[in-house]
Amino acid sequence: MGHYGDLVTSQPLVVHPDVAAALAQGRPVVALESTIVAHGLPRPENLRVARAVEATVRERGAVPATIAVLDGAVRVGLGDDQLEEIAARDDVVKVSLRDLGTVVARGLPGATTVAATSHAAARVGIRVFATGGLGGVHREARDSWDESADLATLAQESIVVVCSGVKSILDVRATLERLESLNVPVLGFGTDQFPGFYLSDSGATLEWRVDTPEEVAAILAARDALGTTGSIVVAHPIPEHDQMDPDLHDRVLDEGLQLARQKGVHGKAVTPFLLDHFHRASGGRSLEVNTAIILNNSALAAEIAVQVARIDAA
Ligand code: PSU
Ligand code: MN
Hints:
The protein has about 325 residues and is α/β, with parallel strands linked by helices. The chain has a single domain, classed as Indigoidine synthase fold (3-Layer(aba) Sandwich). Helix content is about 50%, strand content about 15%. The chain has 13 helices and 13 strands. Strands 3, 4, 5, 6, 7, 8, 9, 10, 11, 12 and 13 form an eleven-stranded mixed β-sheet that branches. It has a two-stranded antiparallel ribbon with strand order 1-2. α5 links the parallel β7 and β8. Bound molecules: pseudouridine-5'-monophosphate and manganese (II) ion. Pseudouridine-5'-monophosphate binds next to α2, α8 and α12.
């Protein structure tokens, strides 16, 4: 093992000095995933978006911690050279929680999903995480049994995850049912409706609505005091005037699902395949929306992290 930049790489979990300092001083930190960078967005926009997301978190007073596997260790917080590596390399493995140990032991480069990112973040004491959309129950799950490990992991790890729902490529209602069974609360941020990722409203109504970052922090504090472990999902919709045109959305979605079926795409390849189809078949429109979503969610996550740090310090 050697050095990567200034970081010693003989440990399997390495916290970037900026992130470590913030955690030690009780300052707000926001975890960010890397699968969206390596496999969710096309090049070169992926690197541009990854940097913009980190800048947004900083502007709102929190420290960004993008998480990925590089050089034999899970990195909590990346240097810009490392972010570039994740965005540019062709051999980056999509790493869910079950893959984490294998990818670290083999020294492979890996991009962490919501599941793997939540685990690494919670393990080092990060309380808030921003992403675009969660994985969930796939539409043909009755036959394929395809349900993202994101769901079970959110039940295990205690973190606040800000997202815009789950992609419409999934079975949204079944995903919400599973989150209920798994005791994962879903709070609509400024809405009573569960967001539909590219669309502001998935059509499903939520039980709980919050309107401020303070409310989210208060709910987290109550859960801490009660010992109710597991994550909180903050469902933050794209504003309606920025959403994808619903007709374009439905057309591209039908095509994508049919193509995936024809080509026999399955397992962990399904989500990247459908996202890539969306980006190409919508003429770049889904990319604009996806970018707006992740930027909005990072900003809100930073505001929540600031409030959480305030309560934790009191
Ligand atoms: N949502 C997005 N873009 C993504 C993903 C979700 O808008 O790239 C990624 C996340 O990392 C999520 C993963 O955790 O897809 C889910 O993959 P799977 O369905 O194979 O569990
Ligand atoms: Mn799957």
